[in-house]
Amino acid sequence: MPELPEVETIARNLRTGYGDLPALPGLQVRQVELLWDRSLATPSPQEFRARLIGQTVEQIWRRGKFLALTLSKDHLLFHLRMSGDLLVEREEDPISPYHRMMIEFNTPYRLSFNDPRKFGRVWLVDDPQMVFRSLGPEPLGEEFTAQGLYRSLRERHRQLKPLLLDQSFIAGLGNIYADEALFRAGLHPLLASDKVNERQAQRLWESIRLVLEESIRRNGASIDWVYRGGDFQNYFRVYRRTGGPCTVCGTPVARMVVGQRGTHYCPHCQPLP
DNA sequence: ACGAGCGCCTGTCGGC
DNA sequence: TGCCGACAGGCGCTCG
């Protein structure tokens, strides 16, 4: 469940606690269990354990689709990729066969990295910029402006859909929110970025922020077997609605493959000139 | 610079 | 029922 709104939701839950479960800030790492070595991007398992044990969680934040824990000495970074999730559990809770890492605290609780498909990655670094350097602007941040988006679109020659998925262009959009933003902006996924005019760029900028903000308000989207309580999936206009009526004009939603990703759009509302 | 194809993994679903 | 392909919220790599 990992695009910007879902990661933001997880970060908020870890920061403040949810249900009976505690907030993470203030907890000290007592032990580390690495159940699938390749989930660890860096450093080596031995160094990871040695450095992590004893550190205290200070802050929890998000950059793009990355979730970051600021610790007393280092930063612990997670990328959930396709199927990753972070869960706070009690020590007596059963260990899921999909748990890839467990960080046990000096309390009866642990932070479990659950990831059926094993695509997710974890980094322990002193400087998060080592990992974040190539990321584009935060779409909900002040540095992301309609004018800036317009200029960036014009200086490239890319199809809009793959460009929105490019994390060095904007950090945090994935397949759902790229499709939903393009629909709301009335732009075809294959439109060349340098053909977008100023008015269209303004509308795309508003659409990106609108879908992300609305999804965060709804605690993200929950699809398939991964469920975290978000309900933005009930407000999708095009994503996985192939054949269903466009909410604006009634035309059946179409699906095509762009850059190996399923892409959903309304052929009437998002025409290709 | 850009896009296509593939690899990494496991699970679900629909068709035959 | 069992098998098989398509598909799934991502990204890094190689190759034209």
Within the largest sheet, what's the order of strands? 2-9-5-4-3
The span between the termini is: 34 Å
CATH architecture label name of the largest domain: Alpha-Beta Barrel
User: What Rg do the Cα atoms give?
Assistant: 20 Å
Give the mean pLDDT: 96
Count of structural domains: 2
**Which parts are unreliable, with pLDDT below 50 for 5 consecutive residues or more?**
none
Tally of contiguous helical segments: 7
Summing up helix and strand content along with how strands pair, one would put the structural category as: alpha+beta
Give the helix proportion (percent range): 25-40%
Q: Kindly report the CATH topology of the largest domain.
A: N-terminal domain of MutM-like DNA repair proteins
SS strand fraction:
15-25%
Shape: elongated
Number of strands: 11
Using the coordinates above, name the CATH class of the largest domain.
Answer: Alpha Beta
SSE pattern: HEEHEEEEEEEHHHHHEE
Could you name the CATH homologous superfamily of the largest domain? MutM-like, N-terminal
Major β-sheet annotation: 5 strands, mixed
